Amino acid sequence: MASASVIPADVLLSRRVQEMVINGQEPESLYICRDEEEAKNVPSPLAPIPIIDLSLFSSSTLSATREEELQKLKSALCCWGCFQAIRHEIPSSFLNKIRQVTREFFEQPMEEKKKYSKGVREVEGYGGDPTPEEGQFLDWQDRLFLTVYPEDLSDTKFWPESPKSFRLVLENFTSMMRTVTEVVSKSMAKSLKLEENCFLNQFGERAALQARFNYYPCCERPEIVLGLKPHADGTGYTLILQDDVEGLQVLQGEQWFTVPTIPDALLILMGDQMEIMTNGVFKSPVHRVVSNREKERTSVAVFYTPEKHKEIGPEDGLVNEERPRLFKKIKDYDITHWEYYQRGMRALHIAEI
Length: 353
Ligand SMILES: O=C(O)CCC(=O)C(=O)O
Ligand SMILES: [Fe+2]
Hints:
By secondary structure, this protein is of the alpha+beta class. It has helices at residues 9-14, 17-22, 36-41, 63-79, 92-107, 110-114, 166-191, 198-203, 272-277, 333-342, and strands spanning 51-53, 82-86, 125-127, 142-149, 208-216, 226-231, 237-242, 248-252, 255-258, 266-270, 287-290, 297-305.
C-alpha cells in the first residue's frame, strides 16, 4: 500500500480527482478507506430530516403556528442536528444559478481552474486537502474554498473570473446567506426560550462565512472510496446547497442515513460550536459523502463560524441542575478542529469540562 508520507505534498496537491477520472485512473490506495462488504450489504435509508418553513418565523405569523414550527425546529436539532430549510426567501431561480456557476467552474479546462490553486499550507483556493497524516485517506473530490465574509478577510485572488458571472453570483449569495443566518440564529434561540439575539451575539458582528464548492466526480469503485470522509463540522453551523444527486449521509446511532435532495431547500447542519453554545442540547452530526458510479455531484457548503478570537461558550439559560455545564469557554475552535480533522479525529472533547 502506498503510504501518504512517500508522496511529496506539492505532488499530491497538484493532483485533481477530476483529472484522474478523465485519464481513466483507478483510485489508488491513498483513496481507499471503505470496507467493501459494509458498503455492499448495509443499506442507507433516506433520512426523515424535518422540513422547516422559515417564513413561519416572521412576526406576521399566528403565534400558535410559529410556536409549533419552533418546536419542530428544536426537535430536529436535538435529534438529527440538521433540518431542511424551505421558504428562506432565496428564489429557486437563484439557487439554480449558484448550482450552474458551480458546475461551469468545474467543467472548465484544468489550466483555467489551476489559476486559483491553493498552496500546500493554504486553506483557500482550488484543490484538495494537504498530504494526509499517516493512516489517513484522501477524499474523491475537488473543491474551491473561499472566505466570503467579512469582505476584508476574503482573498479575491482565489475568486474565479470565469465563468463571468461567478463573482457577482457569489456576492449576492453571500448577502442572502447573511440574512438566512440571522433568521436561523434568532429562531434557534427562540426555540430554546432564550433571548433571540444570544447566538448572534456569540457569533459576533464579524462572524465568518466561507463557501466551499464541492465537486465529486464519478467513481468506478464507489464501494471502497468516499467523496468526503466521516466528520463533524467545526463551524457554528453549515448551510448546504445540494444538487439533485444524493450522496450526503448523516450518522444516527450506528446507522448511516441518506439526506434527501429537495430542489428549493438548504440543509442547515449544526457544527461543534453550536453544540458547545447550546450546552449539548443541539447535536453536531457526523456526516460523510458517498461516491457514485454514474453521476457526478456538486454541492456548495457555506460555513458560518464565530468571529476570529471571540470567546464562545454554553448559554447560561441552558445550564441548570439537570443539565450541568458540559463545555468550557473557548475561542478559535475551528483551528483546533482542523488539526484533529487531519488526523481523522473529532475535536469536541477539548472543549469539555
Ligand atoms: O457535499 C455535501 O453535501 C457536504 C459537504 C460537507 O459536509 C462539507 O463540505 O463539510
Ligand atoms: Fe461537513
